[in-house]
Write a structure and sequence with these properties.
Elements: E1 4-9, H1 22-29, E2 36-41, H2 55-68, H3 72-86, E3 92-98, H4 100-115, H5 123-138, H6 143-155, E4 162-168, E5 192-200, E6 223-229, H7 233-237, H8 246-261, H9 268-276, E7 303-304, E8 313-314, E9 327-329, H10 332-335, E10 347-349
Parallel strand pairs: 1-2, 1-3, 3-4, 4-5, 5-6, 6-9, 9-10
Antiparallel strand pairs: 7-8
Helix pairs in contact: 3-4, 3-5, 5-6
Domain T6SS Phospholipase effector Tle1-like catalytic: 3-258
Pfam families: T6SS_Tle1-like_cat
Protein name: T6SS Phospholipase effector Tle1-like catalytic domain-containing protein
Length: 350
């Protein structure tokens, strides 16, 4: 059996810091050494793509990255490039991401599905493949599939699959403004064997709508589970001070257990330290308020809905997230005292 390759992509403006996200926690607790290698990539908006910029220009690029998703191609390219450098036949890929970092790893998985794994030295080809993927997402022209098949047959050097994809609260907006960017195979991808997705029940901000995964008939054996947890966006993916991260540690513990069951090697001592840093996972932990007055104006900005905005524009108006019928609800939701979320008529407790 080959090695495990673990790629951790953080959310917008998230990076190595004292207030850890669950992506950073994941990187810290996974075993690193013989048989497993891990790579951590900070989120969009923490560093600007390379180029000769002034200090003012760099700050403008960071703002554009967070507001409009500028730099997403660069983030995809970094993660994909790391895989192409490390991958050998027989290796297993584990991809983890939070927020737009979750969308990044889903995009990387889509890139692998459509265009295969390209040689590490062929960086120009990486850029072409990413651009083709984005173009295919903006067009319904079936010619894109023929081009992808020919490109993969000509240049791909490995038949690569994603063994496990772990996402914390993927959002539908790659940037805060503009139409949502929808890439093919980010919602349904037959080249992923196992998918785990933690979702926030209480997030309501217009620019943080959910972006769920769906089963595909092309991969009937795919193991997909999406679970809803109490809390807002960063109560699920982390980023608040450790003393206020009781809720985030619940979804982190769940994700690590799911990944370990699928073969990920985890340092038990490091995991225990991460879970108990300034307090353990706690259903009674602080549930933060993300929809602060600073976000209220965005609730009255028309936001495109659906792939490429095909469902038109709609105001969010403080709308709650809709939990679908048959959803999986984590047991910690019902352990929280005085908490009564709006749940579907039918659901399963996990």
């Amino acid at each position: 059996m080959g090695k495990a390759i673990v790629i951790c992509c953080d959310g917008t403006a998230n990076q190595f810091a004292r207030d850890k996200t669950n992506v950073l926690r994941t990187f810290e607790v996974v075993h690193k050494g013989q048989g497993q290698v891990a790579v951590y990539l900070p989120g969009i908006g923490t560093m600007e793509p390379p180029g000769p910029l002034t200090d003012i220009g760099r700050r403008a690029v960071r703002i554009a990255a967070m507001a409009f998703g500028y730099g997403l191609e660069h983030e995809i390219r970094k993660a994909y490039g790391a895989i192409s450098r490390l991958y050998e036949p027989g290796d297993r890929l584990y991809l983890f991401g939070f927020s737009r970092g979750a969308y990044t790893v889903r995009a990387v998985a889509a890139l692998i599905h459509m265009y295969g794994l390209l040689p590490a030295a062929a960086e120009d080809l990486h850029a072409y493949a990413i651009r083709y993927l984005i173009d295919a997402g903006r067009s319904r022209d079936p010619a894109h599939f023929g081009r992808a098949k020919a490109f993969k047959k000509t240049f791909s050097v490995a038949d690569c699959r994603v063994h496990f994809l772990g996402a914390w609260d993927t959002v539908s907006s790659v940037g805060w403004f503009g139409n949502p960017l929808t890439l093919r195979y980010t919602a349904r991808n037959p080249s992923i064997d196992n998918i785990r997705h933690a979702l926030a029940i209480d997030e309501r901000r217009a620019f943080f709508r959910t972006n769920q995964c769906y089963p595909t008939d092309e991969a009937p054996a795919q193991d997909l589970r999406q679970v809803w947890f109490a809390g807002v966006h960063s109560d699920i993916g982390g980023g608040y001070p450790a003393a206020e991260a009781g809720l985030a540690k619940i979804s982190f513990r769940w994700m690590m257990a799911e990944a370990e069951a699928k073969g990920l090697a985890i340092d038990a001592q490091a995991l225990d330290l991460a879970l108990n840093d300034q307090g353990p996972p706690d259903p009674q932990g602080k549930l933060h308020r993300s929809l602060t007055p600073a976000w209220w104006p965005a609730e009255f900005v028309p936001k495109a809905r659906g792939a490429g905005g095909r469902d038109g524009l709609r105001l969010n108006l403080f709308r709650r997230r809709t939990i679908p019928e048959g959803a999986h609800i984590h047991g910690s939701v019902f352990a929280r005292q005085g908490y009564a979320p709006i749940l579907p008529a039918q659901y399963e407790t996990v």
